[in-house]
Amino acid sequence: MKKDSVVPDMNLSLNGSLIVAGNERDSFATAVIKNVIVTALCISINYINGILVHTFRKHQIFNMNPRYILFVHLVLNDMLQLALSTLLHIISYALYTISVPFCLILLTFAILTTFNTPLNLAGMAVECYIAVCIPLRHGQICTIKKTYILIGLIWLVSAVSILPDLFVLLATEPLEFFHSKVSCARDYVFKTTYSLQKRDASHIICLVLVWVILHYAYFRILFAAKGASAHIKKARNTLLLHGFQLLLCMFIYARPVFEQGLLIFLPNQYPAVRFASYVFVQILPRLVSPIVYGLRDQTFRRYMRSYILCNVSMSNQPEKVPT
User: Fold this and answer.
1) Whole-model pTM?
2) How confident is the model at residue 109 (pLDDT cuts 50, 70, 90)?
3) Which member of 114, 155, 184, 258 has the greatest number of CB atoms within 10 A?
4) Which residues, other chains included, contact 322 with Cβ-Cβ below 8 Å and sequence gap of 6+?
5) What is the DSSP string of 137-156?
6) Of 142, 137, 135, nearest to 231 (Cα)?
7) Contact (CB, 8 A) for 91 and 179
8) Burial category of 218 from C-beta neighbours within 10 Å (exposed 0-12, middle 13-18, buried 19 and up)
């Protein structure tokens, strides 16, 4: 990182990276502090998520349950998305521009993982709805094979949202563009009118569809929870947390309004507001998954504790597959 050229005025691209946009610059110390904060959060969250994945992998009680399979896919997706977002954030400070092919690889996976999150939440909501409202058919509908097929479909739908942009880019940009360096952000690379309009349309369709699914599942479970067992009420509360997580994910699309609101109270702190919105929009939503299952789920919490405390005795205890 160069001491005399560190960026403060940044744009938050929809792929989650902060990019250089203006002439004002952070001091070297401020830039280092911001990057240390982002990196520390990334490592901490991914460490917790890594324990979740390790716990899932080590115990059959989890890897034979469709609900936990969808959950661990969400965790792995969040880990990759957070790592890519952090890398793009550091690149925006240290390098400013990178080669187009390398940027395209980073952007493609960053966009895929960002798009995967709401789709995965919708799949988990449907599974929760089936378990509560159609319990007798849950084992028939939510099989291990169908769960992995659903995960494949999630990646396929996400790929459909970005692959046309890649084809348009290859068809419209001259060969010299792919040998050049760019600021690695979606709006700077996929800048055709078609790409921008398709991006907005795909985001709106995806988020509206997911919100409809979450609301339908929540209210069906809400009606089933009246005077029902604590298990059903817990499912209802889990869907509320999924809705909260989706709301946090949606802030990336409402970022300009969010930042304008902060600037009303901090009119002279534009770089700080940009950085705060990046942390709130891109990093904090990745904390929700460990909370939903790592802390609230008693089974996961019981096995996770053994790894957090570096105690493997729990792994030798007999396991009981939940009904």
Assistant:
1) 0.81
2) very high
3) 184
4) 61, 65, 299
5) HHHHHS-HHHHHHHHHHHHH
6) 135
7) no
8) buried
How many residues are given for the chain? Answer: 323
Residue 179, token pair as written in the block: 């040998």
The 3 state secondary structure assigned to 57-101 is HHCHHHHCCHHHHHHHHHHHHHHHHHHHHHHHHHHHHHCCCEEHH
Half-sphere exposure of 54 (CA within 13 A, CB side): 15
CB 82 within 8 A of CB 42: yes
What is the rounded CA–CA span in Å between residue 193 and residue 237?
41
SS3 category, 11: strand
Note the Cα 227 to chain centre separation in Å: 35
Structure tokens at 77: 């997706």
| Cβ contact 249:211 at 8 Å | no
pLDDT in tens, 213-263: 888 887 887 777 665 566 666 667 777 777 777 777 777 766 667 777 778
